[in-house]
Specification:
The chain is mostly helical. The chain has a single domain, classed as Multidrug-efflux Transporter Regulator, Chain: A, Domain 2, CATH 1.10.1660.10. About 60% of the residues lie in helices and about 5% in strands. Strands 1-2 form a two-stranded antiparallel sheet. The longest helix has about 35 residues. GO terms for molecular function: DNA binding; DNA-binding transcription factor activity. This is MerR family transcriptional regulator. InterPro entries: DNA-bd_dom_put_sf, MerR-type_HTH_dom, MerR_fam. It comes from Nocardia terrae.
Length: about 120
C-alpha cells in the first residue's frame, strides 16, 4: 500500500504519515523507485497511533509502547506499565492545575457578579 492509499484509508494526511515515520512510529519499506510501501497492517497501526496521541501521550512514549501492542490492547512489557502510568500521572497533574485555575476564575466571576453595576465604566 502506498502512502496515498494509506492516507485515504486512515484519513491521515500524507505529511502526518511521513512525520510518524520520522518519529519511528511507522516503518514503511522502500520500493526500488523510492516510494514508501506500507504493509496491510499499517491502517491498524495508524489507528493505534492516533488513539494514543488523542490520549495525550507524546510520540516518544508511543514509540516505546508500540512494540507491546496487540490486537486487543497491550501486553505487559517492562516499560509499558511505566509509560502508561506516567501518562496518567501527567493528565492528573493537568486536571488538578485546570481545576485550580477554574476555581480562581469562578471566584473572580462571583466577585464581578456581586459588585454593583456602574453604567459609567
Amino acid at each position: 500500500m502506498l502512502i496515498g492509499e494509506l492516507s485515504r484509508v486512515t484519513g491521515v494526511a500524507p505529511r502526518l504519515l511521513r512525520y510518524y515515520e520520522e518519529q519511528g512510529l511507522l516503518v514503511p519499506h522502500r520500493d526500488s523507485n523510492g516510494y514508501r510501501s506500507y504493509p496491510e497492517s499499517a491502517p491498524d497501526r495508524v489507528a493505534r497511533i492516533r488513539e494514543l496521541l488523542d490520549a495525550g501521550l507524546p510520540t516518544r512514549d508511543i514509540r516505546e509502547l508500540l512494540p507491546c501492542a496487540t490486537d486487543s490492547g497491550f501486553q505487559h512489557c517492562d516499560h509499558s506499565r511505566k509509560v502508561v502510568g506516567d501518562g496518567l500521572h501527567r493528565l492528573d497533574d493537568q486536571i488538578a492545575e485546570l481545576t485550580r485555575r477554574r476555581e480562581l476564575l469562578a471566584r473572580q466571576q462571583d466577585a464581578v457578579l456581586a459588585a454593583p453595576f456602574d453604567p459609567d465604566l
